[in-house]
Amino acid sequence: MKKHQFQQLLEYIVNSEAKQLGDFKATAQIAAELLSQQINVSSVVVSALSAETNTLEQITRLCLGVNTSSASVIRPNPGSCTNFIHQLKDERHISAEFCGDDSRLVELKPYYQALGIISVLEVAIRINGHLEGILSLERTEATEPWHDSEVQLCSQVADQLALTLATQYGYEKDERLTLFLSAAEQSDQIMMVVNLASDCIEYVNKAHADLTKVPRERVLGRQVQSLDFFRQYPTLAALVLKKARIGETSEEEVNLVRHDGSPYWMRFSVKRFISERGNHFALVNAEDCTEQHNHQSELLRLAWRCGLTGLYNRTHFSQVLEKAQKGHLVLIDLREFKRFNDTYGHANGDIMLIEVARRMRHFAEAHQISEVARIGSDEFGILFENEEDEIFIEHATERLYKQLEVPITIGIEQIEPKPALARVDLASIEQQFSLLTCADIALQYAKNKQGNAIQVFNSALLNAFKEDAQIERDLAVAIKGRQFELYYQPLKDLKKQSYIGAEALIRWHHPKKGVLYPGAFIDIAEQTGLINDIGSWVLEAACKQLNLWQRHQIDISMHVNVSARQFFSGTLFEQVWELVTRYRLKPHSLILEITETELMEDIRSATNLCHELAALGVGLAIDDFGTGYSSMRYLKQFPISKLKIDRSFISDLSVSHESREIVSAIIAMASALNISLTAEGVETKEQEHFLAEHSCHQAQGFLYSPALRVSEFGQFLEKSASIH
Ligand code: C2E
Ligand code: CA
Ligand code: CA
Questions:
Q1: Is the pLDDT confidence value at 627 over 90?
Q2: How much distance in Å is there from the Cα of 503 to the middle of ligand 1?
Q3: Domain identity same for 208 and 318
Q4: In this structure, are 590 and 645 located in the same domain?
Q5: Is the Cβ atom of 506 under 6 angstroms away from ligand 1?
Q6: How do beta strands 590-595 and 514-516 pair?
Q7: Residue 423 forms part of a structural domain
């Protein structure tokens, strides 16, 4: 009877949907329910063993009668009943009529006691010999020993539970596998598995074909050596494979070419892993990084190239120069480019620069030079890295100069680029000076040259530069140190034969070098901006002196030289106004001298300032007249009170017919415009004679006196007055 019922029970479990589906929990519940109906027990417990966490999870507990309230008491984890687990693995089941006394079950004693369990049947649920769970039948009342048929039934039920569990695991594994596979297929990242024993590609996902355009069939199952990467980077590929075999990870970025010729960048990593069965595989992860590379190289290009001309920029060129060991550096500057830019507009300025860059590049290509750069707004550099033959370089740079000089057609006009060129032999450089500094020094000289504006750097230039640098440092303290003094050179009225004016000329009592003439420092002061302070001091000192003379009834005018920077500083009018007021000067007795070229630097503001000064009554003289534009048009535009004929014409009077013509023309022009005239640098009686004959108003020069200290000047005036 029992046997038959047991058979039915088993069949019921075997055929249950829960078991077929591999639903362990539901099957365990059914089993517990049925067993509790057939066998005299107080509770049936099914637990599952988790290998990962080494814990015992209670899947179901079915209690009949008394001990339901203690259902929260749980079976001990395998860790605390290792002996029990061990025996169960080997013996499949342990049955004990009195578990409290059973030595096999001592570890479970506290649990049994807590629930008042007296008799147990513990049955192993095993798959392939592994313990996966326990089916436990518990009795709280002692009845009789466990019957063989009961033990057999429970063992069979446990087997069914094991099968259910196996199905569940199988399903889970299958489902996970399909999940992973479809995830891998969805991924934009390339995934590839290579068998390291056979070099065979066991798996590759869809992303690989998307990037490489190589169909999967041509990859899957093939040798890894057939990949483009191995063909295009054989050495690197072999190394990566070698590293994978010994368990070292590789990460690389490579530029590959597809079969259609299109290039792309791929970043990949290769890592070894060992399967459960101990086989070695390489997992390859890869992705397209073409865009990042393009972006990076674009950034590099932007960082290294001039956006307008496409030539290298200063940053790049400086780096190249730093590393350069030998050869020649040529620096090119476009003289008057700024003026051209201001006059013709930036768009035309750009056209000029682009054309100059094109010529430079053309020249460089012809000479197989790669380093051509635009290193400033109108400055270009070219490095003859391998050329050491001096004569060759000399001819080459001359050719370059000639090519750059050729007029450029801009709109309807032909514009001359006016290059200045400096050349430096890298071997001639002193350690403490950079190559560019030396080239710049030579360039300054080149710019001031007449004719071919080419200058080769040499040690004399460097010494002059060092000297200038020293002057610059000394100038900074000269004003505070009261090292300047004004000397006065008399101006003679040729008609009245008396002295009517003085030109204030600055002298510098240099603490080490002695007296310095303006030629030694005015240009440096002008370049560094120190001229503003010096000029202010000169103006103040001259006005103070003029005030003194006026208080002593000495009626002469004071000529003060004004530099361009000072003239356009924006504060000159205010300064002059303040001084004229403070020293109560007769305004017309103060005459500011400025050269024509300087005046033309900014015609509009010059015109405004000249009118303001004229309104104040202060005179304006054009210095060194004849050496600049000497244009009638400008003379009319500015309210000029005086022209000073440059001394070069005067010194040439006796020898040059042309100079005589020019001087007579200037005199005629000045008288037509009603402008007063002074001849500078008069050294001989003949010169004076010529000037007087042509009705030149005034003369100044060594014939009368050089510039004198103020006390000597007073004596000079007294002496000359007494003669007349
Ligand atoms: P400049 O304005 O043409 O001054 C006349 C220069 O010619 C003075 O040279 C003077 O000594 C010199 N000279 C006068 N008569 C003769 C002569 O008969 N023969 C020769 N060979 N030379 C003569 P200096 O004093 O060396 O001044 C040179 C230049 O420095 C001046 O040329 C002027 O442009 C500038 N300078 C002088 N003082 C000042 C100043 O206070 N401020 C500014 N900004 N420039 C000044
Ligand atoms: Ca002057
Ligand atoms: Ca002069």
A1: no
A2: 9
A3: no
A4: yes
A5: yes
A6: unpaired
A7: yes
Instruction: Report the residue among 486, 503, 505 best suited for mutation to probe ligand 1: largest number of ligand atoms under 8 A from its CB.
Output: 505
Ligand 1 proximity of 538 Cβ (cutoff 6 Å): yes
678 pocket-lining for ligand 1 (C-beta < 6 Å) = no
Give 52's pLDDT tier (boundaries 50, 70, 90).
confident
683 close to ligand 1 (CB < 6 Angstrom): yes
Ligand nearest to the CA of 539: 1
Would you tell me how many other CB atoms lie within 10 Å of the CB of residue 409? Answer: 10
Q: Where are the beta strands (DSSP E) in 92-148?
A: 93-96, 119-127, 130-139
Range in 62-71, 283-292, 659-668 the model is least confident about: 62-71
Ligand 1 atom with the smallest distance to the CA of 566 is: 44
Please indicate, yes or no, whether residues 508 and 543 belong to a single structural domain of this protein: yes
pLDDT tens digits, residue range 258-284?
999 999 999 999 999 998 888 999 999
96/206 same-domain check: no
The dihedral formed by the CA atoms of 334, 335, 338 and 341, expressed in degrees to the nearest 10? -60
CATH number at residue 236: 3.30.450.20
Best of 561, 708, 709 to mutate for ligand 1, by most ligand atoms within 8 A of CB? Answer: 561
Burial of residue 348, with CB atoms counted within 10 A of its CB: 0-12 exposed, 13-18 middle, 19 or more buried: middle
Burial of 679-717, coded b for 16+ CB within 10 Å and e otherwise, reads bbbbeeeebbebbeebebbbbbbeebbebbebeebbebb
Please write the tens of the pLDDT for every residue from 444-468: 999 988 889 999 999 999 999 899 9
The reply to whether ligand 1 has any atom less than 6 angstroms from the CB of 123 is no
Shared domain for 325 and 376, answered yes or no, is: yes
Q: Which of 689, 669, 588 shows the shortest CA–CA distance to 625?
A: 669
Output the pLDDT for position 586.
Answer: 92
What are the tens digits of pLDDT across the range 205-248?
999 999 999 999 999 999 999 999 999 999 999 999 999 999 99
Rounded to the nearest angstrom, the distance between the alpha carbon of 8 and the centre of ligand 2 is 132
Mean pLDDT value across residues 595-607: 87
The verdict on 531 and 670 lying in the same domain is yes
Choose the final residue of a domain: 127, 144, 173: 173
- Residue 610 Cα to ligand 3 midpoint, Å, equals 19
Range of the domain at 415: 306-457
* Residue 50 pLDDT > 70: yes
Task: Tell me if 596 CB under 6 Å of ligand 1.
Answer: no
465 lies in some domain: no
For ligand 1, whether the C-beta of 707 sits within 6 Å is yes
Decide whether any atom of ligand 1 lies within 6 Å of the 688 Cβ. no
588 and 618 Cβ atoms separated by less than 8 Å: yes
Domain CATH for 360: 3.30.70.270
Distance between CA atoms of 208 and 217, rounded to whole angstroms? 11
Rounded to whole angstroms, how far apart are CA atoms 672 and 695? Answer: 12
Note whether residue 471 is domain-resident. no
Nearest ligand 1 atom to the CA of 624 is 3
Cα 490 to ligand 3 centre (Å) = 13
Amino acid at the residue 293? H
- The burial class, CB within 10 Å (0-12 / 13-18 / 19+), for 361 is middle
- Check which CATH number belongs to the domain holding 144 and give it: 3.30.450.40
In a domain? residue 74: yes
**Alpha carbon distance 265, 74 (integer Å):** 59
Rg (CA), the chain: 53
pLDDT computed for residue 1 by the predictor: 47
pLDDT tens-digit profile of 171-197? 888 888 888 888 888 999 999 999 999
Average confidence score pLDDT of the chain = 92
30 and 140 both lie in a single domain: yes
**Together in a domain, 236 and 133:** no
Q: Report the number of distinct structural domains present in the chain.
A: 4
- Give the CATH number, domain containing residue 577: 3.20.20.450
Regarding predicted confidence, which is higher, 379 or 79? 379
Last residue of a domain, one of 148, 173, 198: 173
